[in-house]
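Reply to dn_fold:

You asked what the input looked like. This is it:
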Amino acid sequence: MTLKEAKVGQTVKVVKISGEGAVKRRIMDMGITKGEKIFVRKVAPLGDPVEITVRNYELSLRKADSEMIQVELLG
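and this is what came back:
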C-alpha cells in the first residue's frame, strides 16, 4: 500500500520509495527513508496535503509524493 492509502492515526513503516532524481531526493531530504516509521496525523479533505510525523518532526507531503512511498502497516 502507499502512504496516500494510509488512514489518519495509523503508524506505518516505509518499505520502498519510488520515483527518480529530484523527487526521490526531496522525499529523502525530509527524513523519509526505508525502514522509517511514519505517523499519519491528518489528511486534507481532497487528500492534499497529507500531514505526517517523522522522527518527531511534523511534515506536510503532497498527494503525488505520498503515492510514491510504499508502506506497510505496523501493529
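The chain has a mean pLDDT of 92.
Hope that clears it up.
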